[in-house]
Write a structure and sequence with these properties.
Chain lengths: 370, 278
Amino acid sequence: MNLSNLPTPHPSLPVNLIPKLPIRHLTAPIIGRSFAIPKLLLHGTPAAKRVRATVDGDGGKTGNWVNRLPIPGLGAENVFRLISSATGSPIGQFISSPVTFLHSVDPRIKLVWLLTLVVLPARANIVVRLGLVVCTALLSISVLPRQVWMDQLARVSLLSGILFITLGLGSDGAPPMLQSRTPPSSLTGLPDLPMSLTGYSYMLLKLGPLQFTRKGLSIFQSASICLATTTPEQLALAMRWFLFPLTYIGVPVGEIILTLLLSLRFINLVFDEVRSVALGIVSRRVHWKQLTVLETLDIFASFIRRIFKNIFRHAEQISQAMIVRGFRGESSSHKIYFFSGSSNKFADFASVLGLIGVISTALLSEYFFV
Amino acid sequence: MNANCLFSPSPPPRLFPLRSTSSVSPSVYRRTGVVSEDVAVECRNLCFSATTRPGISVPILRDCYLRIPSGQLWMILGPNGCGKSTLLKILAGVVNPTSGNIFVEKPKNFVFQNPDHQVVMPTVEADVAFGLGKYPDMSLEEVKSRVVTALDAVGMRDYMQRPIQTLSGGQKQRVAIAGALAEACKVLLLDELTTFLDESDQVIKLELGVIKAVKELINAKTGGDVTALWVTHRLEELEYADGAVYMENGRVVRHGDAATVLDFIKAKQSSYIDQIGF
């Protein structure tokens, strides 16, 4: 058999070189007027319309299609820009001026207030809870500077809204299949069991498939107010006062408080470091569109690696500074001086009175609003 | 112009006469206390080498000689990497020297170049008071008085309760200096304090200037018992110094009054400019 007579198979798969920067055909500025691909005007055959489709805009060649995905705002450059332009002030920092009524309240009383406002909503009536929310918002408006309370309330509202949607309207789980093991009263001839006196109702509202339960509301703003009107040292002083009895059972309260203070200082350094490194990457003007996914991920990995490296260097330098300034590793031998500020007796008395009033109202609300 | 002047061996340092000591250990030298009473900082034959990962020993300081009289402000100058900050860290006790003799009067304090490394507490007043924690018997009124005085000296009295992260770099640097001033040390070791300060902080507004604050502190003490050693790159700061040390390649090249060292540095600068034909 003569093999030379056989038809030579030609591979039909064209090999197209993918350009690094694919040249796109510009679309016509007038809709329906494609100058690059003119219409075929077939006279005499009105029903026949030919549609020409191409895989890519570059004449059938498969370009770098990933770059054409409509993902604005999610690019690596935008992420780094967002990080670098983020505020250097973490949420809930102390505001030294203007000095308000809350600034002069003893930090221990403020901590008790904070604990009360966190715990009380779990036990109080819905009316009291709403009242607490309104009072907290009004207090923020009256105490904090305008820009601060607007920023904080907006942030809290957004967080509460997200929680409202995710927790409040969502189902808590599959309701258990209940079947009373008690024989019905019609069989026993005994009167029915009395209903609960507390009037507790887990489900507050039911709108078709959505149900609104008791765990939909929370108070976050109280913590922001406390942090905005109390220095970290004052908070540490109050915590040390409350934790002091634990020293009799061997709890290292001094070390805990010192660690808390150092952490509060170090958090800001971490924020600054993240912003600085991100700004360094943005200022390099990397051509992100020319990078592959792996190369982009590599830059992100370098970003994280650099942050950790700098933070560890900071920690080492701060430990050196502490040694130079006389700290010898034992908080018991190095006294931390706390300046509690100007605590006003009248402010303390008024805040304690208000605290008692709020707790009493919450306790009595269970009877008044049943 | 002799182009080789930049690369010629350094001239022998013009040092004050030092007393001979038999000990080579810095700690022994500290204990012997053979230095004269009017000297606050002194080091001789000081060497320091850093070991790299492959185990190679890289010399950083080579036979450094230094002698700072009490009650004066001295400055250390030199190009980048010549060992100024390392020398200061050795004098502060942060780094141990490889060999040599050092003496630094106590109590001493060291202020880092980067204030973020120095400031350890979240608010200004607490940080200035942090260094006083090593005196547990000090009353709270005394602590408050020292903190207020130190912050007043650096023009930061109105910022006592401000969180550190809300301050600028220059303000943080002043807080760091206030922390050192509050301890009422006899020796202040200051590493490039003016790096984070703007021009107004340094020279123009002397009322708020850090240099002025340090100079005033030295002048305020009768008997001249406060000494400051200041590492800097700025020649204009030499105007405020009583003496200066110029270093190159880990060695002390010039050591003496500020005007002499300034003339020496300017001569080097002009020879370098002539060499490159600028």
